[in-house]
Amino acid sequence: MMKLRRAFLLGAFLVLISRAALAQPAPVPIGPGAIYQEIYRPEGPWAIRVVEADLSQQYLELHTLLGGGETLARRQLSGIVASEHMQTGRPIAAVNGDFFSLASNSGLMLGLHVEDDELVTFPDPGRSVFCVLSDGTMHIDRLRANAWLRGPDSLLLQFSGMNRPPSYADLILFTPRFGQQTQADPGTMQIALVGLTDRVHPNVELNARVASITTDGSQRIPSDGAVIAARGVSAYALRKMKVGDEVTLSLQMEPEKGEIEQAISGGPRIVRDGEVSVEYQQERFVESFASMRHPRTGLGIRDGTLVMVTVDGRQPGYSDGMTLYEFAKLFVELGCTDAMNLDGGGSTTMVVRDRVVNSPSGGSQRAVVNALSVMSVAPVGPPVQLAIEPREFSVLSGERMPLQLTGLDQYYNPVTVSAQAAQWEAAPMLGEISKGGVFTGATAKAPIIGLVMARMGTMLASSVVHVTPGPARVVVTPARVTLQPGATQQFVAQAYDEDDQPVTVSPGRMVWRAETTEAGAKISPTGQFQAPTQNGHVAVLACVGSVCGEADVIVGEEFGVVESFEEPGNWTYRAEPPSTSVGVDWGTDPLRPRNHALRLRYDFSKGAGTRAAYVDLNVQLPETTAFSVYVLGDGQGAWLRARLRDGAGREFSVNLAERVSWSGSWRRLTGLLPDDVVSPVTLESIYVAEIHDEHRLAGAIWLDDIAAGEATAAGAGGAALGMAPRLPSGQAGKATQ
After folding, report:
1. Distance CA 400, CA 433 (A)
2. What are the C-alpha distances in Å from 571 to residues 321, 369, 461, 629, 715?
3. Contact 616, 572 (CB under 8 A)
């Protein structure tokens, strides 16, 4: 990189500087005992953000936050933080938290969440938990819930979980944190409790009284009580319970750590006793989750200091992300004795003083289920210093950038000041700065780096400015997408300078175009793309001058068969409840004698409530966004679903058909995977189910040619996505590639 000359403006401040002097910006105080630092390492390349908070400081507090504020929900991190202003303090920094269910927008995290001493969800006993005790100490451990219901006639029953939908034979405790209703299926026994003798918090025993009992579907959760939901054998054990009965809830966390004030889960642990210890196997993560580079979020403990870190990823040339081993070494380098990973990928986000400071891999923030936030409760005083945001930015010659001027008091609380009242200064060869703080880049033949200054009395602030004649590269997001013919997709482009700083580009200077031989492909000046009416490939380009970024669009579907069922396998079957009749046969396709397929037989004529028949396949899918399976229907109307598990150990279900309403023909059904599954994904089972008591179905469906590939974005969540007729028998029964 060329060395830039230095120049001084009379008045004794530096306006032109070398990039080398800015390679590692100094930590910035953001609160009493809290600092924020940006680190860029080209060897990765890695864009790293670090917040360090000394929790022994008088005015610092640490809180976990739910996505929905008071209830479970998903929301962008900046929205979660904004909702907490002036309630528990002023958030000065936050990161996203736990992994969550990929199957819905319910806001259900996978592990323990304790917020201000209130127990919200149980821990996954195999995953790490970060917790803060009432004495202020921080710990990383694997905890398990030992929770029991005691009732009349020596009733003693163990809880399976808390604030999540019950599966067969589960006993689940619902509190108002779940929402207003349990959302339980018809047939689920639900017992409403009132008169709780204590708050629902870890390591408590509390008494309550039964207010109502129902099996009529979703039950209202009393605002001052709870609901117990039971299915299968758990419901049978509670059959004698009646209104007015007294019960006791025992909610213990083991091993005993003390009084847990805040807790959030993730995993795996990556540092133990100051040494790298990536414990992915112990916590049921696959090896590739640890060894592949992904965007990462994590936290570490250094004596009484909390260290929160994000590493951007999936942005080639800017930041690739880290393996868990690289991530662990970073925490050791930062002096942490213990550290753990949190949810990453598209969820990785850090907010500092109400501003998203990292670059989320999807181009924008993902809605997440919970967060960990450092709060300041320091009193607000008069400003003693100034700050300019952004602290560093890059613009093209002639582009405008509005700057925000803020005052900071002695505890680094933001205090409103007038940008119009400040004296703004910038070297003429760098650009112009208006009285209100709007900077315009000068015409430059080569990149220039300098400072913009704001002065108010004795207070002075500066921002590092990069002025460049053109970007070094342009990145288009998403980089690859598959669409239905005629469907639309919004693309976003970001320009970067030669130092990988994001460059501000006005919409008029970013030129979009679509390169294809297919008729009908269109793209607007803002990046709104419409696919052509025929299958094919389209290159979407975003250009600033002669520098372009490109995205690949597949129009139509591309699938490859991963299980053809042409050879017998070790497939197994099971049923819920176990009394349901089920069987699996491998044999000749009834419509095409030269083809083989797998038959799933079921009989739901006995019993009531939810009944399901599973065939366990355990087919590992390649890296993909979707899978498909051909189904020969029986016309009985059963619900058809698939159960999958990703590389992070997260289980989720995908709808294939709301009703198997066809018979005598094969149809290809497509299931879309959630946005941020971690490869590899395993298709564990395909199953038929019935939830209505009065529907007593019996029949058999055939399965063939499980395939993986890039699915079309249109139609996501439909009852039977991507249905297509089966190939004629003369095509040897292979799915369309």
Report:
1. 9
2. 38, 36, 68, 16, 31
3. yes
CATH of domain 473-556: 2.60.40.10
Q: Report residue 460 CA to chain centroid gap.
A: 40
Q: What is the 3-state secondary structure (H, E, C) of 165-215?
A: CCCCCCEEEECHHHCCECCCCCCCEEEEEECCCCCCCCCEEEEEEEEEEEC
- Quickly state the pLDDT bin for 592 (edges 50, 70, 90): confident
Q: What class does CATH assign to 144-254?
A: mainly beta
Specify the CATH superfamily of domain 7-24+380-468: Immunoglobulins (2.60.40.10)
Helix (H) or strand (E) holding 82, with range, is helix 77-82
Q: Render pLDDT for 639-697 as a digit per residue (tens, 0 to 9).
A: 999 999 998 888 888 999 999 999 888 888 989 888 778 888 999 999 999 988 888 89
Cα distance between residue 433 and residue 395, in whole Å: 13
As a whole number of angstroms, the distance between CA 198 and CA 287 comes to: 43
Place of tokens 């739901």: 604
User: Which residues touch 140 (CB under 8 Å, ≥6 apart)?
Assistant: 128, 129, 130, 269, 301, 338, 339, 340
Q: Report the CATH architecture of 559-731.
A: Sandwich (2.60)
Common-topology check for domains 7-24+380-468 and 473-556: yes
Strongest mean pLDDT among 283-287, 435-439, 496-500: 435-439
CB 147 within 8 A of CB 158: yes
């699938």: which residue's tokens?
Answer: 559
User: Sheet holding 547-555: strands in order across?
Assistant: 480-483, 547-555, 536-544, 511-515
Smallest CA-to-CA distance from 645 within 678, 596, 667, 675 is with 678
Stated pTM of the model: 0.81
Per-residue pLDDT, 698 = 93
- The torsion angle over the Cα atoms of residues 235, 236, 239 and 244, rounded to 10 degrees, is -40
CA distance 514 to 527: 10
| Gap between the Cα atoms of 46 and 321, Å rounded | 6
The 10s digit of each residue's pLDDT in 361-394 is: 877 899 999 999 999 999 999 999 999 999 999 9
| DSSP 8-state symbol, 580 | S
Residue 71 class from Cβ within 10 Å (0-12 exposed, 13-18 middle, 19+ buried)?
Answer: middle
Q: How far apart are CA 167 and CA 398, in angstroms?
A: 61
Reported as a pLDDT band with limits 50, 70 and 90, residue 251 is very high
